[in-house]
Amino acid sequence: MDGNALAKRVRMDVKKQAARLDAPPGLAVIIVGHNPASEVYVAHKEKDCARCGIVSHTYRLGEEAGQEKLPALIHRLNNQPDIHGILVQLPLPGGYGAEAVLQAIAPEKDVDAFHTVTAGKFYLNKGPTFLPCTPAGVMELLDAYAIDPRGKHAVVVGHSNIVGKPMAMMLLQRDATVTICHIHTADLAMHTRMADILVCAVGKAGLITAGMVKPGAVVIDVGINRDGNKICGDVDFDAVGKIASHITPVPGGVGPMTRAMLMKNTLEAAKNIATR
């Protein structure tokens, strides 16, 4: 399943719609401290914004100064009319209360979909609201490959608030029967072998082997791990790819779609604010 190609199509659509607005959408990204991985992610987001006609604003705060300046910066961006989406790059340095920081972002600009108001609307299906970017990207991939979750048994490995839980809810809202597995699940393979759609979002290289997958299953690998100089997912791609009907590579699968959904959410935020 080619996430790069689909993400390109999503970006092209965002660019066309953004060009019709009176003013371009604006995305503010806040990064605190000096995390090399975060810097890479932010650089990718800046490139995506340029491709989509979205104005990217990056704010870098020193680790110590950020404790004092971060709340004030978020408050200012909440009230800045040319900023339509705000995200704080995670993880934050130690000592920061990430939850309090994320809740400070105005829900109408919460394009990462972490605010409790956003999550509440999503889980209760009381939209319109922003969808969490990674699970939304997975659903776009399923749709692009004509994979209908209705009536399927979906197994989600991982129960984080960022991926696992919203992924399970999106599949449930599309009429799949959903099983959620996690670190305390006994006999993980018993559950994964029953999956028509298997989504793994744990962050453990090689966790899912061929013997844990039903032949013909759709396998979505959300994990990102480093194996020496190589980036890999949670799934043994070579072995599982021989028996799965569809499988996402790492890199080039879910990752590009996550960023594409961020662009889509930013566009929607700009459109919503413009119609007030």
Structure description:
The protein is α/β, with parallel strands linked by helices and 276 residues long. Helix content is 42%, strand content 16%. The protein has ten helices and ten strands. It has helices at residues 3-19, 36-52, 63-78, 98-103, 116-123, 133-144, 164-173, 188-192, 237-241, 254-274, and strands at residues 26-32, 55-61, 85-88, 153-157, 177-181, 197-200, 218-221, 225-227, 230-232, 246-247. A five-stranded parallel sheet has the order 5-4-6-7-10. It has a three-stranded parallel sheet with strand order 2-1-3. A hairpin with a 2-residue loop joins strand 8 and strand 9. The radius of gyration is 19 Å and the shape is globular. The protein starts with a helix and ends with a helix. 44% of the residues are buried.
What class, by secondary structure content? Answer: alpha/beta
Q: Output the radius of gyration.
A: 19 Å
**Share in β-strands:** 15-25%
Strand order of the largest sheet: 5-4-6-7-10
